[in-house]
Amino acid sequence: MTLLAGRKCFRLLEPLHSMVYFAPETQAELTAAGLEKSRMCYFAGRAAALGPVGAAVVASTFYNFNPALVARHIPRAWTMATPEAITAARLRAVDAVQHRLLGAAADASEMAEAAGLALRATEACTGAGRPLYAAHAELPRPEQPHLAFWHATTLLREYRGDGHLAVLLSAELDGLEALITHTATGKGFLPDFARASRGWSEQEWDAASERLRERGVLDAAGTLTEAGVELRRQIESETDRLGRAPYEHLGEEGTARLTELAQGLTMRALGAGAFPAGVFAMGTMR
Q: Can you give the pLDDT at residue 102?
């Protein structure tokens, strides 16, 4: 099985995890648990598995957010709701979001099959050097198939993400530089959304872009140079290599089937409006 097969499978699974961050049900459940609206819900919801950690830990593991933005909400969030209450609220939100966006597919036999395959893939994940994965792996596995599927996609996402951060460190890109170079590929977040949602000012964005120009990664127009394109290619390739274990464990046939099931679910979610306009570059979620 090629590394690209694992990448394709992951990219179709990832929206089925991340759609929760854009759903009104998530904010409703987390604010009902005691949190403030907007950014606090994201930071505390995703970091709750780590326990009541400080802002530096969250900024470190999330990587591309401005630490000053994180510090506005963490650790204050833990005084408003316990990590256990937040984790439970997030899972209730997942249940509501999946049923709204996926409809009957959330409870179909294919969902149970997808959950079984995704959970089997996670059997090959290990926690060494992967703090966000390890924290989420210690959470109880939900019994209902659609929630177990989301739990498994979370593990696969954080496992790959932790490895990706190691690659970015090796490439000597800080969080903001990594964000800028990724948006410059024309994939993922649109630049304006990326900058604002991650809490960076225009001045900070421009200063980081200048560092990348001095390094030969960006040109004067902010476009990736030939060296920049190669750098991003190497980053994705190495991320694939570090994240290959779950898909190798699942095998070629299992990975192909999980990819097929994930594609159907993702297309259904996108068709139901899982993500707002003005967030992702055209074609990113296809």
A: 98
